[in-house]
Design a protein that fits this description.
Helices cover about 55% and strands about 10% of the residues. It is an alpha/beta fold. It has two domains: about 120 residues, Response regulator (Rossmann fold, 3-Layer(aba) Sandwich), CATH 3.40.50; about 80 residues, Rossmann fold, CATH 3.40.50. Strands 2-1-3-4-5 form a five-stranded parallel sheet, with helices on both faces. The radius of gyration is 18 Å and the shape is globular.
């Protein structure tokens, strides 16, 4: 008898009840995703996460009380941290950069389609990026603007702890490749790629693929 995988547990955080209702309705149609709680403020989000231990949290950026950025930072540093995705109406570099620096696993706009939203949650849950390669490169370009020699040396020193294979994978991440694309390029399984990525994150003290990509770009590896 085939055992059915447990659904991805999600908490939705937004101070607009219509937005929350809409997202719940969209995700209700996905059999492998379950909304286990909602919140309208950052403080409430922290309480809900501590109670339900979700896999993924979708949170707005601008809310009363503790804002989305601070909530993201607290959530990713909690005892059992969920993957946190910023879901917002604000398509600005400032919000994007601050959310990812706080530890967000992705950044989505509220006009995203139902199918794309569900698929993004699945990707985040599986450790995949939800920024397109173009968005990844735009972010890296912004982060790298004004970089100096000290930043470059620091990044190079961190990357020097990686094995040759790990460095190769880190460069592929910076190029925006998915786990499957990296597996195809290196003739490895996706499971092996994920194992390498976990080791890379530990060695670099990074929390997601975007941070890995930024370090590679700062070090000017492969450029």
């Amino acid at each position: 008898m085939t055992q059915t995988a447990a659904p991805i547990r999600v908490i939705v955080v937004d101070d607009d009840p219509m937005v929350v209702t809409g997202i719940k309705g969209i995700l209700h149609a996905a059999e492998d995703i379950e909304v286990v709680g909602t919140a309208s403020r950052g403080e409430e989000a922290l309480e809900r996460v501590a109670l339900h231990f979700p896999d993924v949290v979708l949170t707005d950026i601008r809310m009363p009380g503790i804002g989305g950025i601070e909530a993201i930072e607290r959530l990713v540093n909690s005892v059992r941290p969920p993957k946190v995705v910023a879901l917002t109406s604000f398509d600005t570099d400032d919000y994007l950069f601050r959310a990812l620096e706080a530890g967000a696993a992705g950044y989505l706009l509220k006009d995203i389609g139902p199918v794309a939203l569900a698929e993004s949650i699945r990707k985040v849950h599986n450790g995949e990026p939800i920024l397109s390669p173009r968005s990844m490169q735009q972010l890296i370009s912004k982060v790298s603007t004004g970089r100096d020699q000290l930043q470059q040396r620091e990044a190079q020193e961190l990357l020097s702890d990686l094995t040759q294979r790990e460095l190769e994978i880190a460069v592929f991440v910076a190029q925006g490749l998915s786990n499957q694309e990296i597996a195809d390029a290196t003739f490895m399984s996706q499971a092996t790629v994920k194992t390498h990525l976990n080791r890379i994150n530990i060695k670099l003290d990074t929390s997601n693929r975007v941070h890995i990509a930024v370090l590679v770009e700062r070090a000017r590896v492969g450029s």
